[in-house]
Amino acid sequence: MTPPPARRRRTGANGAAPAHSLPRRGTVRRAQAITTYGVGSLLAVDHESFVISGLDGADRSWSLDESPRIHERRLARLLDVKYFRLPPASDDTSTDGLRVRRFPLMHSCPECMELQRHQDFNPPSGRSVCGTCEVDLAPSRFVVACEAGHLDEFPYRQWVHRSTERGASTVGPCGGKLRLRSSGRTSSLRSILVSCTCGKASEVSMEGSFRRNALKDLGLKCQGARPWLGTSVPAQECGLPLRTLQRGSSAVWQPVLKSALSIPPWSDGRTDPLAEHWEKLRKYDDRVSVGIYLDAVFPEKWPISLDEVMTLLDAEREEDSDGETAPTFDHRYRALRNKEYERLCSGNDESEQSHDEQFVCETPQGDQSVLGPLGITGPMLVKKLREVRALKAFTRLADPDSTTDSKEMPLSSSPMLWLPAMEVRGEGVFLRLDEDRLGTWEKAVAVAARVERMHTAHQRVLDQRAGDQGQAVPSPATPRMVLLHTLAHVLINEWSLEAGYPAASLRERLYADDDMAGVLVYTATSDSAGSLGGLVAQGEPELLDRTVRSAVHRAEWCSSDPLCMETEMSGAGGVNLAACHACVMLPETSCEHNNILLDRALLVGTPDDPHLGFFTNILEQ
Predict the structure, then answer these.
(1) Which residues does 553 contact at the CB level (< 8 Å), separation at least 6?
(2) In angstroms, how far is CA 584 from the centroid of its own chain?
(3) Model pLDDT, residue 613
């Protein structure tokens, strides 16, 4: 069967006019509004460049008329919102799309070589061309950003007039016009030349502009610019150092995504009408008060019974109870994962649930004893699941996996009742590692020493990113975390070969803590590769045994060996060991940790120490 064409959403132009009157500038997929082109990111459309507008204001990112609400109570509580909204899907009947603002404003003309703001070229309405030369303008290739998330134009005038002395002050108006040209000798920054017609400064190249202290040496600090929020929100001086970036660099925008699985008692969808009432309901401890409130807001018929409401309220209070009067974000996020782990372990049989149930997790029928020699226990077939992924905020030049708020830039100028999100419905396989065998293995001196190298390298990266702005979050690298992470990657690679799933359509979800040692591999797309039963079938013990053995044997050798296996560190910052794109790395959409903290030696051992691997016994058979 031919799958339906991907639904796309279109971007609109800058301004607050009605959506149908805005020119269409391009298309992006619906999911990209969360993962790639979210609020505050830069979008290149043909020869033009735009920044995605914020969620509020006159030209908010999208109209709410075509943004359906979705609910996931556990995730909404974590992120302190009432509900989520899907990005509008653009089709033939759609009148809406993303709102954008032109950024950067500095453009250059390839004919007259003038470098100035876009409006100063006097372009015809709706076009980005030089009013004199009538050729397409080129947006600035360079922008500046700080680690607090602010974004601004590159200071070309200060750069070309910079003093040779360290710490020169900013330059005032000189009366000249800037020009930008390329010498064409090389493709490096040395060939990009900037000059000013004032005659007070010689022509200079862009070489050196990417140095960490290049703009600091000019006496420049971040002014707190937030172009995605428009001119109605005044900038407040930030004071942090500025860094020069390529406009298309991934460091310009990194999403802070948080996700949750819909698990009982929240997973049948009947609680959605109560989404905006939970905070008030939580104030009542007795059934009578809860019943009176429900009668007031639902005079005709309650969405669910009083017993179900009380069960939900008890479940929320249980997640919050840890001896603290005000649970922290980290505690609530751990509690969210803990509850998912408990439910994946206990299951939720389809025969005992209604047709509307969104989470079905059952024990396989086959003999699970075949998995004993592998150190794997408790496989579960997740026949139905729903995941909600919400865009909480974004960062620039920072760690996107940090759970702290110090460097996260909000999506709006004021608090919102909702956040952008996507929902994924699919299937998966959940498995655990035997706690006794795992406990013995992770206490081995060689294992602990190897993982400590990764932990130290990762912590160093986190500390460098934190700088002087606060204490860095601790690295999650532990023996069981790295083992589970690498195991999930080799399983995804194996199933992409054996079960016909593209690796990018599968995703991992790790449960690695002192009392958790599990991994869920599930379908991560909502298209034809979403939920057809093919992945669940791989969780039957006989097939799973064969898959794990094949995956481990495949991980024993890499086409980059012996360099891959014998490397002392790999990846950015040296946070990986025996891991590369030829063996265990995955598409970025499939990995929870951006392809870091991986080491296949923990699976199969090394030539010098074969017993280092958790699955060494498989290779010896």
Answers:
(1) 618, 619
(2) 20
(3) 93
